[in-house]
Design a protein that fits this description.
Blueprint (H helix, E strand, L loop, with lengths): L7 E2 H4 L3 E3 L5 E11 L8 E9 L3 E6 L3 E3 L5 E3 L2 E3 L10 E2 H5 L3 E3 L5 E11 L5 E10 L10 E5 L16 H6 L5 H10 L2 H10 L2 H8 L4 H10 L2 H10 L2 H9 L3 H10 L2 H11 L6 H4 L6 E2 L5 H8 L11 E5 L10 E6 H6 L23 H10 L4 E5 L5 E6 H8 L18 E3 L3
Parallel strand pairs: 2-7, 14-15
Antiparallel strand pairs: 1-11, 2-3, 3-4, 3-9, 4-5, 6-7, 8-19, 10-11, 11-12, 12-13, 15-16, 17-18
Helix pairs in contact: 4-6, 6-8, 8-10, 9-11, 15-16
Protein name: Magnesium transporter
GO molecular function: magnesium ion transmembrane transporter activity
Pfam families: CBS, MgtE_N, PRC, SH3_actinomycetes
């Protein structure tokens, strides 16, 4: 190592950027791979799990890490591009050991909330210390905490039946939903469900939307029906409809009956359309405004951080009622047009309505052609009487255009690529 730091707590480096010698970022640290041998022997650090471009997770041997000083992780510049696959003898320190219940020297219980690693005189890295919260899980973060040596605690070498995930989730708090979904896919089924149990409904809904359908069905199937319906309510109606469409009819109907009536009505309407049509892809919750709304009001609505960028790219102007299906659809106003006019201007003065908008039965190809032809990231979907039914966004179109199972595929190297690539220098 070019720098020899002292004790390093893993919570301080997980999520940190990994750089090559030239100072260019090659990925982010997601976990530390260790070999847990016994309760008395400190686990040896084998390497790091690094998430590189395309959310692929690769293994970086600890011998190729030249610096961990001040949280800066620097490599020799060489990364193996093969996807990391955990071996039976390996343990993921962050994902598997955090939240483990252990027995302390005085016989009481505690919960692991962090681990520390140190380098010995031979320059090998070991997990040296365990940060523990006394009192077990029932005290949460309010219990006293202490840092003990690895061999002072018992319970880290055996799998725990009901391990929590509070501290693990703390390391994932700033991850995007797509990245958290990717992390869940790599966890063993038992650990995955422990994480799912502790995610709040809104966060779980966001993650489910980023998972392959088979994983969505698996997770929803083990949730209590009441909670499953709450999570479906938090999902975008089109994603909830896609998921329910994968379930047996009786199960889907039971969950719809438990959902909030207004949300269930939107989902039921979407389920009537074929999957690869405008109706099957649209969301029923675009930003809808009356013609007498001002540009200031429109900007305030699309400023909502919960809106995805494609839905925030325009507002849809309709006569009341303003919930889909709306009154007469008058047109759209692009975000850029809102920025060019005085805040007091009415949206009805700048609506754009000179395109033959798609009907709900329009094909996927037709919708994709319209988005490409008019350089748009979203389109209104109207019925034969020009009532707004919903909006199709480009992310949903891409979801259907990409090969089936694309969420499960990593970006593979070209067939002629070497198994190891030099990033720089």
């Amino acid at each position: 190592m070019s720098a020899t730091p002292g004790r390093i707590f893993l919570s301080r480096i997980v999520g940190q950027a990994v750089f090559d010698p030239a100072g260019d970022q090659v990925g982010k640290l997601r976990d530390v791979v260790v070999a847990v041998r016994s309760a008395r022997q400190r686990p040896r650090v084998l390497g790091l799990v690094v998430e590189v471009l395309g959310r692929r997770r690769v293994f970086l041997p600890i011998t190729r890490v030249t610096s961990l000083d001040s949280g800066q992780i620097i490599t020799t510049g060489v990364l193996n591009v093969r996807k990391f696959v955990q071996r039976r003898t390996e343990t993921l320190a962050i994902h598997e050991l955090l939240d483990r219940t252990v027995t302390l020297p005085d016989g009481t219980s505690g919960t692991v909330y962090d681990l520390a690693m140190e380098q010995d005189p031979r320059r090998d890295w070991y997990v040296s210390d365990v940060a523990v919260q006394s009192g077990g899980k029932r005290f949460g973060r309010r219990g006293p905490h202490q840092v003990l040596e690895w061999d002072q605690v018992k319970g880290l070498t055996t799998e725990e039946a009901g391990q929590g995930a509070t501290h693990l989730l703390a390391t994932m708090d700033e991850m995007r939903a797509a990245d958290l979904a990717n992390a869940l896919r790599d966890l063993p089924p038992k650990r995955r469900m422990e994480v799912v149990t502790e995610l709040d409904d809104e966060r779980l809904a966001d993650v489910l939307e980023e998972l392959p359908e088979k994983d969505q069905v698996e997770i929803l199937g083990v949730l209590d029906p009441e909670r499953a319906s709450d999570v479906l309510t938090e999902m975008d109606p089109d994603d909830a409809a896609d998921l329910l469409g994968e379930l047996p009819t009786a199960v889907a109907e039971a969950l719809l009956a438990l959902m909030e009536p207004d949300d269930a009505e939107d989902v039921r309407r979407l389920l009537t359309y074929e999957e690869r049509t405008a109706g099957g892809m649209m969301t029923t919750e675009p930003v809808v405004l009356p013609p007498d709304a001002t540009i200031a009001e429109a900007l305030a609505r699309i400023r909502n951080p919960d809106l995805i960028p494609a839905l925030a790219s325009m507002v849809y102007v309709c006569r009341p009622p303003l919930e889909t299906p709306t009154g007469k659809f008058l047109g759209i106003v692009h975000f850029q047009a809102l920025l060019r006019e005085p805040p007091s201007t009415l949206v009805s003065a700048i609506v754009d309505n000179d395109i033959d908008w798609p009907r709900p039965e329009a094909s996927l190809e037709h919708v994709a052609n319209l988005l490409a032809a008019y350089n748009m990231v979203a389109l209104p979907v109207v019925d034969e009487n020009f009532h707004l039914l919903g909006a199709v966004t480009i992310d949903d179109v891409l979801d259907h255009l990409l090969p089936e199972g694309w969420r499960e595929q990593d970006a593979e190297p070209d067939s002629g690529a070497e198994s190891e690539v030099v990033t720089h220098g």
